[in-house]
Amino acid sequence: MTIDQATVRKIASLARIAISDAEAAAMEGELNGILGWVEQLGEVDVTGVEPMTAVIPNTLRLRDDVIDADPLTGGNRRDDVLANAPAAMHGFFGVPKVIE
Amino acid sequence: MTDLTNLTVAQIRDGHRAGDFSAVEVAEAFSANVAGAKALNAFIVETPEHALAAAKTADADRAAGTLKPLSGVPIGMKDLFCTDGVQTTAASHMLEGFVPRYESTVSQKLWDAGAGMLGKLNLDQFAMGSSNETSYFGNVISPWKRKDGGNASLAPGGSSGGSSTAIAARLCPAATGTDTGGSIRQPAAFTGISGIKPTYGRCSRWGIVAFASSLDQAGPMARDVRDCAIMLENMAGFDPKDATSLNMAVPNLEAALSSDLKGKTVGIPKEYRLEGIDPDIDAMWDAGIAMLKDAGAAVVEISLPHTKYALPAYYIIAPAEASSNLARYDGVRYGLRALPQGAGLQDMYAATRAEGFGAEVKRRIMIGTYVLSAGFYDAYYTQAQKVRTLIARDFERAFASCDVILAPTAPSAAFGLGEKMADPLSMYLNDVFAVPASLAGLPAMSVPAALNREGLPLGLQIIGKAFDEQGVLNAGLAIEERAGFTARAEKWW
Questions:
Q1: Other C-beta atoms lying within 10 Å of the C-beta of residue B85
Q2: In a domain, A24, yes or no
Q3: Which ranges form a coiled coil (chain A) (predicted)?
């Protein structure tokens, strides 16, 4: 299966990455090279094989149902959470206007 | 007086404990080497003050009789680990200027054990690369040169290329690395040092910038096997903040080190004998087999029939997970924001990600987005996850007849910077021997074994059963003792 530049632009749009026409052209060749190579996986007989979900068997744990059970990942860290925001305002993340 | 920067972690720890030197002297000696090695570009941020503060504490602790396991040992921290108050970039423009307000579990454990930080080590951008050429902050240069009279700059391997270069050039005695598909082992092999990727889940991923979460695993890099054992003991351990963290006690790896392999069986995977491979690699492998026999091990041939499908499966699974993990970089909560004139929210996302990610990162996000998209998910992603099951099953079956597996770490010695950048596929192929163990979550290490005809180091890889880091380290030690690898790069920087 090969992809064309229109597909490259569609993927870029899904991935929220702006690309120029020149980049789309370059990426068309690169992505086709990589996708053509991974296609050899199709020749593996996977009849009855389950897709891997956990590489090392593990069970999902539940933490204690306590507020701020972990002081690092609990609440009341607003200033820390906002400290690296490009545009924090009034205790919130600032974004461009979203209602047209 | 001996040059303190030639000492290993164990020698620093023991010498400091015995009062042969102060921790401050050690920290200052390494910081001076760091400051004098700008040409290698191994560090993104230097933190001599952090190393010095830890050293002063270590000296005080010695006087008070309260020494910790790594008191007096300064280390390098791969810039993928979040460090409280110290810029953490993953070598990307996206996170340039990002100063975490928290500490990763692994780095916190190391500081709690008394270690100090010399700085944040350069790497491939978001750990995506095998040559350290994708860093936004410039290439790391290997301290090694080919003995051909030329002066070509060589790749230190990747993604932990800052770590490998810094250790090989004596800028730090040990460093952290992370390994998603060979990112500890391949750079270790390229620079003549040791490194171990433990079993998936041994080291907490909390606070490590995520690449491919089902594969990412932290581990130590150092000059020898003992130092790797010491470091790993102080990095590993259960962490409730990581859902895939193993709830198992950390073994006393250093105390149990033994190069006596009597009663052990070493498997030699026949599928790793690649046609047309560099004869120096095959010769090193054969020498390694002889060394393990000499250490008392029996040697058997094993088969890992799905080996050739490991790399293509990896290059679906890792980009798929990366495309999901890296969705968080949107210009809203942290990191770069690009806001063109009059841009709305969607434009801001796209502009931010176009500007903040490098070419290789974009390539992998694009691949991942494609293989996860409607209509292609089963053909690519589900198929790859099934193949991954088969690869893990290959190892399970092989380990019925052996205790550890011996193979080369990489199919070549270090290549020149720029030699593989034009062709992403040829770069990916450099991880052909490293990726299978990653897909199966198994512990694996690289130890330096020989120099090739160009005078460059080559590494042997030992792959173990899940949770058997001890078996891996012990086989590594048996090779280390017999290979007698003492070569080091001549200082030119």
A1: 12
A2: yes
A3: none
* Contact indicator for B291, B463 with CB cutoff of 8 Å: no
CATH 3.40.50.620 correct for B4-262: no
Kindly report the CATH number assigned to the domain that includes residue A9.
Answer: 1.10.20
Q: B200 vs A55: CB contact, 8 Å cut-off?
A: yes
**Does residue B159 carry a catalytic annotation?**
yes
Place of tokens 């192929």: B429
Going from N- to C-terminal start, the domains of chain B cover: 4-262
Instruction: For an interface test with B, give the residue of A8, A38, A70, A80 to mutate (most B CBs within 10 A).
Output: A38
Token pair 């080091």 is found at B488
Buried b (16+ CB within 10 A) or exposed e, B257-267: bebebeebbbb
User: Measured between CB atoms, does B122 come within 8 Å of chain A?
Assistant: no
Number of domains in chain A: 1
Give pTM, 2 decimals.
0.97
pLDDT, residue A60, reads: 84
ipTM of the complex: 0.95
Buried b (16+ CB within 10 A) or exposed e, B375-392: eeeeebbebbbbbbbbbb
Cβ B240–A96 below 8 Å, yes or no? no
Domain that includes residue A28, residue range: 5-41
